[in-house]
Amino acid sequence: MENLIEVKNLYKTYQENRGFLSPKTEPTKALEGINLEIKKGEILALVGESGCGKSTLGNCILKLIETTSGEILFKGENILKFDKKQTKEFRKKAQMIFQNPYSSLNPKMKIGEILEEPLIIHGFRDRKKRKQDVIESAQLCGLSEGDLKKYPHEFSGGQRQRVAIARALVLKPEFIVADEPISALDVSIAAQIINLLCELKDKLNLTFLFISHDLNIVRYISQRVAILNKGKIVEIGETQEVFDNPKDNYTKLLISSIPKINI
Questions:
Q1: Is 99 in a helix, a strand, or coil?
Q2: pTM surpassing 0.70?
Q3: Rounded-to-integer distance, Cα 181 and Cα 211, Å
Q4: Which of 178, 36, 176, 168 is nearest to 99 (CA)?
Q5: pLDDT 10s digit of each residue in the chain, 263 long?
């Protein structure tokens, strides 16, 4: 299976103030020497505790934040060297599903407008085609044409996350970063969203980086898993193999500490 994404020796360092009275800053290493391959058509899970660098890595891969050094290849091309035009084209092919459906949707826009906005930004001028793409994307996520006339506050958390997923799909991307997409949902609704993502992967031949701290969900949804600890990948492999035979002590600790819940 060919690689869609390759991350090579990636570093991300932030400069932080030492204190209120001190003007000096100290470097904080968020990511240290990340090497990662994401194969076309797979769901690769990225797992770790809060603050370990999971979201930072997802944002770097989508070029939403600047990296300090390293390479990120999409279909063999280094996205860090893209100009504005190339970056915009890349963003049509690579999208994000954010963690919180309550804050990621504009409350003043109708659902149809929210889904159409990416198409307008990326220069799709045929209004009729835009409307068709919006309806198609909504229906793929279990939303009706009537839902497009409503506002986000009229929906439940699960429905809002379906809207967020539909927005990510409307540009027909190849790669999606799902950053803790179910952490704000209750268990039964979360299971529906997980099943939807699996269905969409198969139906649309999508590739996912699925960021999570929940190993039970990861075991269910992913083909491979990467374990991130303090900005470093400490273990990566086939999901079942990592669960059955973890090699790193941090991985062993994670697996032993998570309650075993069947979905």
A1: coil
A2: yes
A3: 8
A4: 178
A5: 799 999 999 999 987 665 555 556 678 889 999 999 999 999 999 998 888 999 999 999 999 999 999 999 999 999 999 999 999 999 999 999 988 777 778 899 999 999 999 999 999 989 999 999 999 999 999 999 999 999 999 999 899 999 999 999 999 999 999 999 988 788 889 999 999 999 999 999 999 999 998 888 999 999 999 999 999 999 999 999 999 999 999 999 999 887 655 54
Nearest residue to 194 (alpha-carbon basis) of 172, 170, 210: 210
Q: How far apart are CA 236 and CA 253, in angstroms?
A: 15
- The CATH number that domain 3-257 falls under is 3.40.50.300
Q: Tell me the CA end-to-end span of the chain in Å, nearest whole number.
A: 28
CA dihedral for 94, 48, 165, 102, sign (positive or negative)? negative
66 contact partners, CB below 8 Å, separation of at least 6: none
Task: Tell me the residue length of the chain.
Answer: 263
Distances (CA, A) of 27 to 15, 20, 69, 174: 5, 16, 14, 35
Q: How far are the Cα atoms of 103, 135, 184 from residue 33, in angstroms, in the given order?
A: 32, 42, 31
Q: CA 35, 63, 158: angle at the middle one, nearest 5?
A: 95
The residue type of 178 is A
Q: Where are the domains of the chain?
A: 3-257
Q: Strands, E, within 115-219: which ranges?
A: 175-179, 207-212
Burial 14-41 (b: 16+ CB within 10 A, else e): eeeeeeeeeeeeeeeebbbebebbbeeb
DSSP state, residue 212: E
